[in-house]
Amino acid sequence: MDEGTQKLIQTNPLLWAHYKGMNIRDGIKFSLKGMPYLADIVNCDKKVMSCKKGAQVCMTTTKYIEAMHACYYRKYDQNVLYMMPSEKSIERLSKVAFNPLFDYNRWVQKKGDTNTTLCKEINGRSIVMVGAKPQKVGGSETKDTDSLRSVACDCVMRDEIDLMDQDMVYMSKQRLKRSRFGHQINFGTPTYPDYGIDALYNDSDQRKWQIKCGSCGKYTCLVDSFPNSIILKDGKWIRACIHCQTEIFVQDGHWVADNPDHRYAGFWIDGLLSPYADLEDYMYDYNRLDGAKMSEFMRSTLGVATTEAENQLSKQDVLDMAGTDALSMYSDGDTVMGCDVGTYLHYVIGIKTGRDTYEILTLGKAESFGELHDIAQKMHVKYCVIDAMPETHKIKEFAKAEPYAVSRAFCTEHYSAKPKWDAKEGTVKANRNEWMDKVHEIFTTKKIRIPRFCPDIDVYSDSLTRTAKTIIENPDTGIRKPRWIKLSGGEGDHYYLSTLYFLLAASRASIRSRHGYEQQRFTKQKSNYHI
Questions:
Q1: What's the number of CA atoms in the CB half-sphere (13 Å) around residue 322?
Q2: What is the mean pLDDT of residues 212-229?
Q3: What pLDDT, in 10s, does the model give residues 449-502?
Q4: Distance between CA atoms of residues 99 and 444, nearest Å
Q5: What is the CATH number assigned to the segment(s) 315-528?
Q6: Is 187 helix (H, G, I), strand (E, B) or coil?
Q7: How do residues 413-452 score in pLDDT, each as one tens digit?
Q8: Residue 335, SS3?
Q9: Predicted TM-score (pTM) above 0.90
């Protein structure tokens, strides 16, 4: 090997693996053939890189080779931290994918280096493998994990970030505090729009593989133009230029950033680029699947974040419930209020109109508890459920000072489905998933009415789309259960949660109509909550 090549492989992990003849498993050597899109994904030019991907694009293998190369040539001063959603997933990946890289490439390790399931030492540097499963501290809601606490690193690689606990993702970032490199590499198959890897990609410079046509000279991004970029020609499915329908080839492409001035790098590696892509099979599935199966095809094959209708409200679902009345400025009759606490106090105020029907009279966001008090007074609020966190002390003071009944809400997925009201403490504990389902249900089954369309209702309807339900699997028990997750953008999930608290409050109120009802007496005494 000449000196020039030797210098080149010291800086490029994939050329290193290629020229060294690295075996990715017994008898199978690593090759860049058919995968030119991988070249720029190593040694990225920006500190933070996020890659959303389809199936069979070799991203995981590429990133692990990059970690091995960094240790082999001592690129970093400290460790490389490789994260997956759970300990079981990291153990499985280590045994199936990473152990063979060591077992069949003995030259990588030096004498004295260690090679265990969760730690790979190469030339005095380590790849530490951790699962992002948190532990609750002291029975509280505070999350922590000892697998992250003791690891100082220069690079964090997060594999399948959508399936990780997001508090653990943030904690892993803190492991870079003493690093002069501070590299973060996120990758995985997307799940929901504006969540996880999709949100990270949207916040990046958004690089896409643009293929130049050898006939007309114009460019095509296969995934952006799908399905028009895959056509049947002479009995064979081919990748085609969307301008002249000539067959195009992946090796004729390069990465182009939609937003080159953005701080973070982002790559979208769709499954159509892979040399293993079965285009005929892909088009067969695309033309016959629907519902959840189509959503899975879009995610795992194309790397497109999507969701099924039953798992997320659409803006139209909400706007269809708009009536003819404007947002109320005051109310003569008793109302109930739900409030979510964040930078602002997002409130929803309304009435219970039937056994399981509701009407929102007004909504908005207050900048202070004093402003919220004034709004509640004008709207004749007689009962309120408010988020107990994070301003615990201020919320307690607010609840104590108000002239009407206030319950502080603790909602987690661990409580039983039936809310537990504590009259003495002025609290309510409820199952978060059950009541998130309830918000979704009242709109999809048309059991609620909201004020007529206006800018505030436009924001409200958008906010209710920023929450979606996913199914998670306990890595220890294998039990699958739903979890509602917050998507990025807009007002976040604040209005969704304030609507949840409104429904909790309404569950304790009497039925009334907007313009007439039998007056009920609400008292500050917590034992009289149930009207």
A1: 18
A2: 96
A3: 999 999 999 999 999 998 988 766 655 555 566 778 888 777 789 999 999 999
A4: 49
A5: 3.30.420.240
A6: strand
A7: 777 768 999 988 999 999 998 999 999 999 999 999 999 9
A8: strand
A9: no
Which band of pLDDT confidence, cut at 50, 70 and 90, is reported for residue 518?
very low
Strand partners, 51: 187, 267
Residue pair 204/265 in contact by the 8 Å Cβ criterion: yes
Please tell me the distance from the alpha carbon of residue 42 to that of residue 13, in angstroms, as a whole number: 7
What span, in angstroms and rounded, lies between the C-alpha atoms of 135 and 144? Answer: 5
Instruction: Please count the other Cβ atoms lying within 10 Å of the Cβ belonging to residue 417.
Output: 10
CA distance 222 to 220: 6
Give CA–CA dist 305/438, Å, rounded. Answer: 25
Give pLDDT, residue 139.
44
Encoded tokens for 241: 């230029």
Name which of 333, 378, 385 is nearest 507 in CA terms.
Answer: 385
Looking at the DSSP assignment, which residues form a beta bridge with residue 131? 84
Q: Residue 438: what residue type?
A: K
- 3-state secondary structure (DSSP) of residue 315: helix
Question: At 269, which amino acid appears?
Answer: I
Once rounded to an integer, what is the mean pLDDT over residues 143-153? Answer: 67
How do strand 448-449 and strand 357-366 relate by DSSP bridges? parallel
Distances (CA, A) of 362 to 128, 359, 371, 445, 449: 52, 9, 15, 21, 11
